[in-house]
From TrEMBL:
It comes from Simiaoa sunii. This is Probable nitronate monooxygenase. Nitronate monooxygenase that uses molecular oxygen to catalyze the oxidative denitrification of alkyl nitronates. Acts on propionate 3-nitronate (P3N), the presumed physiological substrate. Probably functions in the detoxification of P3N, a metabolic poison produced by plants and fungi as a defense mechanism. GO terms for molecular function: nitronate monooxygenase activity. CDD domains: NPD_like. Pfam families: NMO. Keywords: Flavoprotein, FMN, Monooxygenase, Oxidoreductase. It comes from the Bacteria. InterPro entries: Aldolase_TIM (IPR013785), NMO (IPR004136). The keyword Oxidoreductase applies.
């Protein structure tokens, strides 16, 4: 059975697919605009989004804040009226300023995880109140990984802000990059146990009248249909879009996915204290051998301690995104090894329609 449009509050997408936010520099205006133009929801990652600015090393946060609007505008030019949103990590230093910048730039939605975005509605409302004549309300979506997290954030929003999330993104343990699970939870994971948790979250969200998007490990149209048969309103996909012509990453980054074997995909401990999923490479071998690559601080994640971190995760991710893969961290989802060729975004979206 094929499912039709995805309706998330005021957002109506022709194809029930959200392209996941991937930083640093993997999902910017090029990829997000292409997904939006093809009928889905394109998401720009705000993580160190200003890394190409000349003064980034001197003042990274200022560069990031001024680049958010630039990337949203560039994505809109590509999107041809499609839906463009942003992903903002709660753990980001000066999180509130990133949210304000995205709202002022007219983002259609904000998807927010890496912590529970408890105060997101307040920041957005305060910013929108200073925007007379704004054309739309910003749709808000917390990322959750359990029924407990879903309950905490929805109850808090209702009690403090009298607002429900416009939709929820339930991100499972097969996702890429930083993960919302402890190492022991990832070790204990089975497809059956997580599907049980996902089904419970879908039921919980339905009782609250909130659409839920399934995320993590979704790669094919069959994966999407299975999630929607469980009651999900749509799916979020990241890894599948990395090996597209439109992805903002360097060709060498995409080639690393094409060359990866299943056994090359590993769980790593990030310098910011969270487990993450990445492709094993020369850089990770050097880190495992005890080499330290800490040169300056780019003020990315609140939980990073530059004094003890083995490497600067911002620099490692920028290296990877710009093609220096042997000196970079190659975040990926569990299905990166399945990539066989460079695809067109529009073809993937047609498969998902």
């Amino acid at each position: 059975m094929k499912h039709g449009k995805m309706i998330l509050g005021e957002l109506h997408a022709d194809i029930p697919v959200i392209q996941g936010g991937m930083g640093v520099g993997i999902s910017l205006s090029g990829l997000a605009g292409a997904v939006a133009a093809a009928g889905g929801i394109g998401i720009i990652s705000t993580a160190q989004i200003g890394f190409r600015e000349q003064d980034f090393d001197r003042d990274p946060i200022a560069c990031n804040l001024r680049t958010i609007g630039k990337e949203i505008e560039k994505a809109r030019q590509i999107a041809r009226g499609g839906i463009v949103g942003v992903n903002i990590m709660v753990a980001t230093q000066r999180y509130e300023d990133y949210v304000r910048a995205a709202v002022l730039a007219g983002t259609d939605c904000i998807i927010s995880g890496a912590g529970l975005p408890l105060d997101l509605p307040g920041i957005v409302a305060e910013t929108e109140d200073r925007m007379p004549g704004r054309s739309h309300r910003t749709m808000l979506a917390p990322i959750v990984s359990s029924t407990r997290a879903l309950s905490v954030v929805t109850k808090y929003w209702m009690k403090k802000y009298d607002r429900k999330p416009d939709f929820l993104v339930a991100e499972g343990p097969l996702a890429g990059g930083h993960l919302g699970f402890k190492k022991e939870e990832l070790d204990a994971y089975t497809p059956q146990t997580y599907e049980k948790e996902l089904t419970a979250m879908i039921r919980q969200a339905a009782e609250l009248g909130i659409p839920l998007i399934a995320a993590g490990g979704i790669y094919t149209g069959e994966d999407k249909e299975h999630c929607m048969s469980l009651g999900a309103a749509g799916v979020q996909m990241g890894t599948r879009f990395v090996t597209t012509r439109e992805c903002d990453a360097a060709d060498a980054y995409k080639q690393a996915y094409l060359s990866a074997r299943k056994e090359d995909i590993v769980i790593v401990k990030s310098p910011v204290g969270m487990p993450g999923r990445a492709i094993q490479n020369a850089f990770l071998e050097k880190v495992a051998a005890g080499e330290r690559f800490m040169t300056g601080c780019r003020h990315c994640i609140k939980t990073c301690d530059p004094k003890t971190a083995p490497y600067c995760i911002t620099r490692a991710l920028i290296n990877a995104a710009t093609g220096d893969v042997d000196n970079g961290l190659l975040f990926c989802g569990s299905n990166a090894w399945r990539a066989q060729k460079i695809e067109r975004t529009v073809d993937i979206m047609e498969e998902m329609a």
